[in-house]
Amino acid sequence: MKKISEVRKIWNYSPEEPINYNPLFDWPIKPVKIFNWMVRRWISISRFLMFILLGFAIYHYLTPSLQTMENFTLDWVLLIFLRNTALLFLIAGSLHLYLHVYKIQGDRFKFLKREMSTNNKLFKFNNQVYDNMFWSIASGVTVWTAYEVLYLTCVANGWVNIVPFTESPIQFFAWILCFPLIRGTHFYFIHRLLHHPFLFKHVHITHHRNVNTGPWSGISMHPIENIIYQSSPLIHFIIPSDPVVVIIHLILVTLNPAFTHSGFEKVMNKETKILDSADFHHQLHHRYYDCNYGNMDVPLDVWLGTHHDGTDQATKNLRMKKRNAVI
What we know:
2 strands, two-stranded antiparallel ribbon, globular, single chain
């Protein structure tokens, strides 16, 4: 279905089809469609597979020993903070250079034509990228490190139970398969909370200044928002898992947003797709605010009436809803 004029006027690029969600929740059940979705989103060569491999490497080669972490000392905590900062620079920085500085693929698959803001007093240093980098590190990496240090200290001292991969590989892969559902559900409800007028005005607005998003916008958030947003890995304090699973979970809530906010649907090398990147679903949220609070893995937006599928009709429906709310 071709997009009509209003959509073309707003976006440099938008998908030609309305947004679709995870077919896991469709009825009747369609096993082949579900399998294809999971392969495309998780099992194929994608950023998710990259994050799983990265999680193993980080825990086994870039994390202090459990013996070291039994005692809380600033040296190993600082090491984890610097490691996490370097990882963010590697992912967000590389994407920013590739897509926005050197413009390797030009404006292909870029949602908005305009560039990141400069000489704009809305942002620290009057520069959107510098502002995003500041909040991503000072707030995002700090909260990320705090959650990780808290968990690892508890593991090192035996205060939380773990289930090593070697004891239960099935549980490990069950966690991997459940991540989209856990994160999708958590994100929807905490995101609705952050849109409460008080929290939006004093907290969430730091992130929402980014109408035109870039890789550094992902975890560019007020510290309170990062504490709320990054809290889904706390589930591992209740349900035992392998520490690698926790590291992967933290990576998904901190590094994956660099892709989902990149401003480009795909990362390309000439005519070849390297990776899927940003979802138009979330780009619509940054444009219209009162829609698409979750993600495409769990259709909570459809079930709870906050869905925008990218069509003109959905925009008209949203505007009508806002007018009726005012009346």
